[in-house]
Amino acid sequence: MISTPKILTVSQLNFYLKSLLDNDQNLQFVFLEGEISNLTDHYSSGHIYFSLKDDKSVVRAVMFSYAAKNLKFKPKDGMKVLLRGKVTVYEPTGQYQVYVEDMQPDGVGALALQFEQLKEKLSKEGLFSNEHKKPIPQFPQTVGIITSPTGAAVRDILNILSRRFKSADIVMYPVLVQGENAAVQLRKAIETFSKTQAADVVIIGRGGGSQEDLWAFNDEALARAIYECKIPVISAVGHETDFTICDFVSDLRAPTPSAAAELAVPDSAELLSNLSAQRQYIDALMDKKLSSLEKSLSNSSRLISAYSPENLLDDYRKTIQNLIARMQSVSSVFLEQNEKNISKTASKLSALNPVSVLMRGYSYITDENSSAISSVKDVKSGDSLVVRVQDGSFDAIVK
Fold first, then answer.
1. Is the separation of the CB atoms in 147 and 157 below 8 Å?
2. Residue partners of 65: CB distance under 8 A and separation at least 6
3. d(Cα 10, Cα 5) in Å, to the nearest integer?
4. What integer pLDDT is reported at residue 61 of this predicted model?
5. Quick one: which of 90, 265, 238 has its CA closest to 161?
């Protein structure tokens, strides 16, 4: 007897296949490794769709938001991963796929990959740029500390600060440095210091630990808060070989909390020693300068003495006195010679003086017009004449 074949709808077929896979215990908890391709990240829903392939085959996969939010790295095409999930059929298309519950990078830890991805992202945005880093003040009046109040790091920082620079005030902001709420507290502490300007420089950090212990310092929001902080930030997380995002974005990275304290403040003893050395140097310079000035002053004094106006005046006085003596000598000779000449001239004049002739008994006769009478021909009877003798004159009439 030939049975009539049962006719199924497409939906019935897909449902049947799905029930087979869902009831297969071997497919409810599978581990797969492969390379991600065709990745689609729906940011609005949080779901991640991709294919997982090897060199021969490919399978569709989906990671819903409830699982994707726990990822510690960002999946990308070409990335090799190890995932855990279950195999089922998506009824509307009849395509079987893997519902991924968890996923880890293959060959590298999820935290390490997340760290590198965030580091690359923030670096491209310029958060690690040296141009943005603020200088650490040379003589801070107040130092802020962000760390656990119970850890060894805070004791080391306080001891070194008090030993190196006692004049600096310390503002402590206690926080958790690991665990679920640590990153939030660290970020709020940075934002508080930036807003209140309660310190001149801030040290943020903790002692050593595993990568998981230090993970709060790899928080993206914390990194952005440090970048925006108006106060210089010194990062001191873990040991010298430990690196966090906080180290890269801070204005200065210290290998340890103790080193951060040394970088934050100067050494008072060293400052005093330098000041003493500078004072000795300045004193030596001053002594040398004074010695040079004294020598210069001595030379100037000799030059002034040699070219003194008083000396010049003495020379001028002597010269004038010599000139006066010479003038007096010349004048004396000149006067003596003139006196002789005058005496000779006087003798000559005396000899030629009409008065002298008159004194010898002669007279000088003139007419009324004062014309000299030198001949009898010059007069006639009745002319009036003036006769001058040595002691006067008198009138005469010619007869």
1. yes
2. 45, 46, 47
3. 15
4. 93
5. 265
Question: Where are the strands (E) in the chain, listed by range?
Answer: 30-41, 48-53, 58-63, 80-90, 95-105, 142-147, 169-174, 201-206, 233-237, 252-253, 364-366, 384-389, 392-397
Alpha-carbon gap, residue 175 to 197, rounded angstroms = 18
How far is 208 from 230, CA to CA, in rounded Å?
27
Residues in the chain: 399
Long-range contacts of 172-175 (CB under 8 A, 24+ apart): 172/144, 172/145, 173/144, 173/145, 173/146, 174/147, 174/148, 174/149, 175/146, 175/147, 175/148
**Bridge-based pairing state of the strands 58-63 and 95-105:** parallel
pLDDT at residue 147 tops 90: yes
Asked if residue 193 has pLDDT above 70, the reply is yes
From CA 96, how far away is CA 54, in angstroms rounded? 17
pLDDT in tens, 293-312: 888 888 887 777 777 677 77
Each as own residue / partner, the long-range contacts of residues 333-337 (CB below 8 Å, 24 or more positions apart, any chain) are: none
- What residue has token string 């001028």? 316
What's the pTM value of the predicted model, to 2 decimals? Answer: 0.54
SS3 227: helix
- pLDDT confidence tier of residue 335, bands split at 50, 70 and 90: confident
Q: How many helices (H) and strands (E) does the chain have?
A: 11, 13
- Identity of the amino acid at 373: I
Whole-angstrom distance, CA of residue 250 vs CA of residue 204: 9
Classify residue 265 as exposed, middle or buried by CB count within 10 Å of its CB (0-12, 13-18, 19+). Answer: buried
Distance CA(334)–CA(318), nearest Å, equals 24
The residues, any chain, with a CB within 8 Å of residue 142's CB and separated by 6 or more, are: 168, 169, 170, 171, 198, 199, 200
In the predicted model, is pLDDT for residue 1 greater than 60?
A: no
Considering just the CA atoms, what is the radius of gyration of the chain in Å? 64
Strands ordered across the beta sheet of 233-237: 169-174, 142-147, 201-206, 233-237, 252-253
d(CA 367, CA 82): 173
Question: What is the rounded CA–CA span in Å between residue 269 and residue 51?
Answer: 66
Q: How many CB atoms lie within 10 A of CB 159?
A: 12
Average pLDDT of span 204-233: 91
